[in-house]
Design goal:
Number of helices: 6
Shape: globular
Helix content: 55-70%
Order of helices and strands: HHHHHH
Radius of gyration: 13 Å
Oligomer: single chain
Number of strands: 0
Distance between the termini: 13 Å
Largest sheet: none
């Protein structure tokens, strides 16, 4: 179980217009244009379940990455978490601990 509400993040990313997301996320510290492009590729590569799985494992679906994306892929998920948390679009998960 994730410590984050990854499903909520996926919903937000998949339903928000690209231009709005770009304005919100790309600040070049640490989230750059290649980060943004790679994030959208991961979102578009599959459904919510696949996105959540890649997020958890910090890996990627089979997507074509350019040189700039290759360069950032090792730190990509950490940068993504930092950027999304600071913008308030990645929340801690509200897991049901009653079990």
């Amino acid at each position: 179980m994730s410590q984050y509400d990854v499903a909520g993040l996926f919903q937000f990313l998949s339903q928000t217009p690209e231009q709005g997301l770009r304005k919100m996320l790309v600040d070049n510290k640490p989230f750059t244009e290649p980060h943004f492009n790679l994030l959208l590729k991961v979102v578009r590569a599959g459904a919510e379940a696949q996105f959540c799985e890649h997020f958890e494992k910090k890996d990627f679906p089979k997507v074509k990455m350019g040189p700039a994306e290759q360069k950032i892929k090792d730190k990509f998920w950490d940068d993504c978490i930092t950027a999304c948390q600071s913008r308030g679009i990645l929340q801690p998960s509200v897991a049901n601990n009653a079990a």
